[in-house]
Amino acid sequence: MDKKYCDICPRHCRADRESGVGFCGVGREFYVSRIAPHLWEEPPVSGKRGSGTVFFSGCNLRCVFCQNRDISHGGKGQAYSRERLLEKILLLIENHNVHNINLVTPTHYTDALVPLLSDLKSRCSLPVVWNSSGYESVESLRRLDGLVDVYLPDFKYASGELAGRYSGAADYLSVACDAIKEMYRQVGGVRFDSDGLITRGMIVRHLVLPGERQDSLKVLEIIKDLLPIKDIRLSLMSQYTPDFALDCQYKNLHRRVTSFEYDSALKAAIDMGFDGYFQGKSSADKSYTPEF
Ligand code: SF4
Predict the structure, then answer these.
(1) Distance 13 CA to ligand 1 centre (A)
(2) Of all helices (H) and strands (E), which one includes residue 34?
(3) DSSP assignment, residue 24?
(4) What is the pTM of this model?
(5) 169 lines ligand 1 (CB under 6 A)
């Protein structure tokens, strides 16, 4: 981290991460909960051999329904120096022949990841995937230009009221729009290799939430107006799992997404001309969530 007081993400909480933690819950060192091949991402990311996934601990968004809350809210994980983390990533490549390196929830480590990714790029040619919440500052993203090949951001909410209620981030929409435009500026249109694996570009993810179908429809309209949709892929997810939100005050989050809710978002996406990855309702199960 260049500055003593952290300003990496749009929270701008200016925590001193040398001596404490910020809203994201972690200090200066990398905290990682799992480094392993992952077979449950979108097909062109996971392929047959898996995506080489690094699950970072802590999160700068911390949604009330998060399915990885032990690591995102609880900070469960192991500390790594930059050198040790790079070594583990290189071992993952060597031992498992993964298709790419997939950094999950990396936003709050952006500054520390810039030199690590520079080293990694000089030693391997696999695509680097930035798998994030979309709640990121343009200034931080610019530092990743040339280091990230594939952006895999969420686009969670259209409504500031919902973003405030579920993620404490009422400014989510404007922040995510700017972030996603910057990601597209860096990587351009989506590209695949001869095996159908993604090598460059963007997959934008949206999770349909129970009771929030209208917001999903607005999200799709916003993405369509923001980016040339033929250049991206959409991942429309139905995997919302209520098990992680049963203690929250929002009763609609205590159930799964209905077929009607997901199918109407799916129909709207298809009518708008999106191409991408669409889930069956069987994915809305706790077993879809990896063990950490
Ligand atoms: S990355 Fe963490 S410490 Fe830094 S501004 Fe964001 S929430 Fe605060």
Answers:
(1) 6
(2) strand 30-38
(3) T
(4) 0.94
(5) no
